[in-house]
Amino acid sequence: MRRLARYLKYFKKEVIIGPFFKFMEAVFELIVPLVMASIIDVGIKNGDKAYVLGRGGIILLLGAMGLIFALICQYSAARASQGVGTMLRNDLFAHINTLSHGELDKVGTNSLITIITNDVNQIQLAVAMLIRLVVRAPFLVIGSIVMAMLLDIQLSFIFLIVAPLVSLVLYIVMKKSVPYYKLRQKTLDRVSLITRENLSGARVIRAFSKQEREEKRFEEANHDVAELAIRVGKISAVLNPATFTILNTAILAIIWFGGIRVNIGSLTQGEVIAFVNYMTQISLALVVVANLVVIFTKAGASANRINHIFDLMPSIQEGSVTGQADFDVRTPIFSLEKVSFAYPDSDEYALEDITLEIMSGETIGIIGGTGSGKTTLINLLPRFYDVSQGDICMDGVPLKEYSFEYIRKQFGIVPQKAVLFSGSIIDNMCWGKEDASLEEIKWAIQIAQAKEFVEKLPEQYETMILQGGKNLSGGQRQRLTIARALVGNPRILVLDDSSSALDYATDARLRKSLKENCKGMTTILVSQRANTIRHADKIIVLDDGRIAGIGKHKDLLETCEVYKEICLSQLSKEEVYRS
Predict the structure, then answer these.
(1) pLDDT the model gives residue 199
(2) What is the CA radius of gyration of the chain?
(3) d(C-alpha 525, C-alpha 543), whole Å
(4) Considering only Cβ atoms within 10 Å of each terminal Cβ, which end of the chain, N or C, has fewer?
């Protein structure tokens, strides 16, 4: 919590004004019982209506001023808490975007979503309560005891006995309940994970008729959350009865012993009523203290989770080189020297001893079985991950020396899963180049074989795409993501199995269009289809994370058994050996 307190420096005015006005409201509350005592002892005793009305007016004035001060405090607390929450979310989101794929994989999307929403909400609530109640509640307890002692030192001993007893009850209840609050966030992560999986994978779940199974899984996770809440509820349920039993007993003692002191003339009837009012104020303030302990316990657990994210440093540090004046065509655009890579927390290499060169303007095909390391290899080129061993150079300069922005501006990447964002088709096309003209967008869409279906849409290029492209077919999404990568004419185009949803005829037209319109562009085709990569300038065959062969189609048929086996499993012998 202390580390996150740095955000309060941006709201110094609210942090000072809020507690000050809440303090003044508490002072007025402590004055009210004294005014009530004077009404009873003077106004009612002497039948002086003018005195009663005058003192009643003072109470109303104190109440009105207290309300105004409370509203000022509430406004200050709202500004500070919402401001802290906004800044914290912005900083968290910005920091998350600096993390490499390895850190994101380790934390998990569901945890990040819970942290940036639920945990930040807990911090916001803690800030609001800090301003509104942290000063008021303890002051009311201490102030009530002091005021009682000023009225009658002997009767005030009841207060000195009650306060430690109630504090002990609070301590015992909080000690037993706090661990459950810390566990609560982990169980919420589980619920968040299952919810996210079910919402994103709704079609798959229905396709396999697994609704009942998923409902049961959600019920189990939800039951864990409910069970924790019930356990905490059972413990917390002791709090109010125990504290109010003590406090009501204290009020009875005040009335009993106060009555005795009234009879002997040491105390007035109004002062006894003032004592009861102060005891009531203490009881209410201590309940508030108990709630504050719960709120700050939850906030402490949330702060630890937030700080854990801030403590995560990206394992990949960017370099300072932001570009080159010119390029030597004889220098490979990429050269990999004995590259090996293992994912975080994995003991096995996903890629091992990879050595190859990619020249500028080449069309490279990467093929291999499932899990052979194709996607892993192309994720190393834009430096989404750093190599475990070996070196990667771009244009003869180690990849680690370039800035992230420069590296990624060289690429137009189409991932395996076609991802589109809510907004118009034009909005999605401008991701690669913000100021792309309509002509550039149309050029990219035409190459991606998307023009035919886009221009048939009611609003054509202004057609709105739902979240994730849910209102488009798989093939349409893939073609639009290819078009998005082409906008801005990138130096390197990476198609990671991005034609899997296209029929063979559309796939063939796409490859032909790329060859005719993207001359000079280095194209990397990742596919499990032999037909897609057979005409590439260079084919890289991967097998279990190692290079099984590099060469042209005809050469690999003679020298690489893995490649030959892949081709013959997909095509007839005549098609395989046909030029």
Answers:
(1) 67
(2) 36
(3) 17
(4) C
| The pLDDT of residue 569 | 81
DSSP string across 72-108: HHHHHHHHHHHHHHHHHHHHHHHHHTTS-HHHHHHH-
Instruction: Examine the pLDDT at 217 and tell me if it is beyond 70.
Output: yes
Both tokens of residue 507?
């796939």
Rounded CA separation 163/145 (Å) = 9
Structure-block tokens of residue 470: 């849910």
Say what the pLDDT of residue 147 is: 80
CATH of the domain at 259: 1.20.1560.10
Residues 6+ away with beta carbon under 8 Å from 57: none
Query: From CA 178, how far away is CA 81, in angstroms rounded?
Result: 23
DSSP string of 402-431?
B-HHHHHHTEEEE-SS----SEEHHHHHTT
Whether pTM exceeds 0.90: no
Cα dihedral sign, 122-128-130-132 = negative
Residue scoring higher pLDDT (106 or 522)? 522
- pLDDT in the model for residue 200: 65
* Total Cβ atoms within 10 A of residue 184: 19
**Residue 165 belongs to a domain:** yes
Distance of CA 115 to the CA centre of its chain: 5
The residues, any chain, with a CB within 8 Å of residue 110's CB and separated by 6 or more, are: 189, 192, 193, 196
- Cβ atoms within 10 A of the Cβ of 186, count? 15
CA atoms within 13 A on the CB side of 424: 12
The DSSP bridge partners found for residue 542 are: 368, 547
Q: Is 398 helix (H, G, I), strand (E, B) or coil?
A: strand
Q: Which two tokens stand for residue 25?
A: 């409201």
Rounded CA separation 334/374 (Å): 16
Question: Domain span at residue 70?
Answer: 3-184+232-311
Mark out the alpha helices in 455-535 (DSSP H runs): 474-486, 504-517, 530-533
Q: Return the bridge partners of 438, or none.
A: none
| Sheet with 538-543: strands ordered across | 411-414, 492-496, 522-526, 363-368, 538-543, 546-551
| Residue 165 dihedral angles phi and psi, to the nearest 5° | -65, -45
Which phi and psi angles does 263 have, rounded to 5°?
-65, -35
Q: Decide if 48 contacts 10 (C-beta within 8 A).
A: no
Higher pLDDT residue, 374 or 237?
374
Question: What is the total count of domains within the chain?
Answer: 1
Residue at 442 is within a domain: no
Question: Which residues, including other chains, have CB under 8 Å from residue 550's CB and lie 6 or more apart?
Answer: 356, 538, 539, 540, 541
d(CA 56, CA 33) in angstroms, rounded, equals 12
Q: 67 lies in a domain?
A: yes
Most distant pair of Cα atoms in the chain: their distance: 120
Q: How many CA atoms lie within 13 A of 236 on its CB side?
A: 16
Which DSSP state fits 460?
Answer: G
Q: Are 36 and 150 in contact (CB under 8 A)?
A: no
The answer as to whether 307 is a domain residue is yes
**CB 173 within 8 Å of CB 236:** yes
d(CA 474, CA 476): 5
Q: Please answer whether residues 390 and 338 qualify as being in contact, where contact means their C-beta atoms are separated by less than 8 angstroms.
A: yes
Q: Do 406 and 454 meet the contact criterion of CB atoms below 8 Å apart? A: no
DSSP 3-state of 395: coil
